[in-house]
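Possible race condition, two jobs.
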Amino acid sequence: MGLGLYDEKDLSLRALDEAKTADKVFAELYTSLMSSLDVKKLEVLVGKKVTIVSRKTLEEEEGRQIFQEAERGKVVFLVPGDPMIATTHIYLRISAKKMGIDTRVVHGASIVSAAMGSTGLQNYKFGRSVTIPFPEKSVTADTPYRVIMENKRRGLHTLCFLDVKAEEKLYMTVKDGLNALLTIEKIQRKNVVAPNTLVVGVSRAGAPDSCLGASYVKDLLNYDFGLPPHILVFPGKLHFMEAEALVALANAPREVLGVAK
């Protein structure tokens, strides 16, 4: 079941009904940050204890704890956003099928649609999405840079998820993500992510204080997006309506209107 984006009130009525009638309710909170989710309030809402499971439970132990309960009764598994966005959750559903355990998905609001909708960029003009990871041992992965470059060559927008290490309470910010890409730019020198590249930042999508800002990389490095979660979008070729949306909704520089078609 999808928990949505912001807090426990993002649960759909259908998901809430399913949770209330479950014998056991599990939730994971490591694949994404829900900035105002209160587990105690969630338990009051569903009327029963919610057992939080770790990455180890789902990935290393392959969800054994959840499956054991599912063989005895009805289990609801709550996850941030939309349930089937994370590969781990798809794997669990496939495993359940092989065990003869029936499953059903109740979708929730996703950062994918929320980011696209809030920016005003047309969803069918997005190319492959990518995650910008935290640098490991001073090495920055160049996959995000290459994905942005490939999408731009096709005139497509790129949605960049920013890394989350929930166990360590580390959440990549817009500034972190841009600095990681600028590090690769210094090596590649293909002008894919340069100081004058247009980029859009979104923070706390779905929250009352959600923040949206569009400008050049050099400007967004100093833009205060507030608390995470954050996400980045690199626009491709802009339709005139998309450019107007970025100016009106995200305070993009008005000169983007001159390059749109």
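Job #2 (started ~2 s after job #1):
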Amino acid sequence: MRLEHVDADDARAVLRGLRGAVLGAGPAIALGATTGATTAATTADAAAAVAIPTGEPAPTEVPAGTAVVVTTSGSTGYPKSVALSRSALTSSALATADRIGEGAWLLALPAGYVAGIQVLVRSLVAGREPAMLSGSFSAAAFTAAASAMASSVGGTRVPTYTSLVPAQLQTVLDDPAATRALAGFEAVLVGGQALAPALAARAADAGARIVRTYGASETAGGCVYDGVPLRDVGVRIDAGEVRLSGPTLADGYLGDPALTDRVFETDADGRRWYRTGDLGSFDEGRLQITGRADNVIVSGGVNVSLDRVERVVRALEGFTDAVVVPVVDERWGQASVVFATGASAASPDALAALRAAVAGALGAPARPRAIVVIDEIPQLASGKPDRAALRAFATTGR
């Protein structure tokens, strides 16, 4: 099947491409700088392997059934070209409708990332045109787009839905008009990173119906909602690592069968499983993520999960958007620093209070070494914190 590159910054062009790739006969579309052949850069955990382009030409053909190839580097800085079939995308869209209902969707995320792609696919599968936020994301733009969605069929209001990342949710909740608009949605999917408890509480107090999602490009977006897997999605924990299966799994990484074989494993029953690289537990049908397998430092001989440190820090007043990154420490080997914004982080007593809170929850070795106050947390185009940039700044000061 022919692969056609589409400008990921043009949401309407992406929608047109998806209409043909998902509902029609193609061609498949490529979003992002699709890599050619790749070589794997591995960490101690094979599932954390990422693809580095070797410089060979990007492919122009993909296997039959492929709908989208989405290339994203995430926070690793290395590109991965994930091949998603129309079956995986539509299975995800139908399972979402089965869980939260069907209606009209507002695209407030970049169309070139899987969460944005799925907003468009859900709209196509439901036979509705998606609403699209004009220009860059802002509270005013969100309010205007949400207000324009009101419609009814046979006198019954059409439910509305949208998908946001936590940084967008915070922007909305800081504006009264946008907050009122948010409360009008039947459900608001929030994913991309962990949702701070304080931010979740603010949304609930405002009347917003938040659904926390968990997934990846490799699972065609969120496949676990509020800890409960979507229809036909399987979850298991293997040596502490979360693995996922089901009809939403990607076919693999374009041009890299070796990486595909490492990250997507097939069990004795012939079922494919995606190694997420996340640590967690799955008890009584509910998934709990505790952190990344590769986001652990060794401080003074003690393993410290920076994801757990970040959760404790974000629970403190004024630190909702804080990001914790590793640094080299001459005495302890490794330590961490907290990047944060606002007056609370700049307070003279902030570091002592933060270290006490972390020590109380996780033990003394987990205490961050410092707080770095910055004007704003740098973000990737997907809305996630740019952890690579923060790690570089923590090391070099630039």
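The chain is about 30% helix and 30% strand.
Logs attached separately.
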